[in-house]
Amino acid sequence: QVQLVESGGGLVQPGGSLRLSCAASGFTFSRYAMSWYRQAPGKERELVASISSAGGTTTYADSVKGRFTISRDNAKNTVYLQMNSLKPEDTAVYYCKAVRLATDFWGQGTQVTVSS
Prior knowledge:
This protein is mostly beta strands. It is 0% helix and 53% strand. It has no helices and eleven strands. It has strands at 3-7, 10-12, 18-25, 33-39, 46-51, 58-60, 68-73, 78-83, 92-100, 103-106, 110-114.
């Protein structure tokens, strides 16, 4: 069955870094664009970053440009989110999403907390 499993979240101090991973299985990963979303308490889920199926195109929310980098390894069926210069406002549950045409899959999320 389809699975997207996020990992790498945790507690980090402001200014620190984390690398999230999302391991995919059960579908042809290389055919799907991948995205990272986040949802903070009391707020709507928002798009953080996206990467095309082959990895040649990336997009970012303005709030994370220059600090976060999305990448993928199609040989490992994994998408990553490198997060640097973290701020308290980056605190949220981070989700990965796979999308192709009208089909999408979501992971269960991983908590990122930025606090001193």
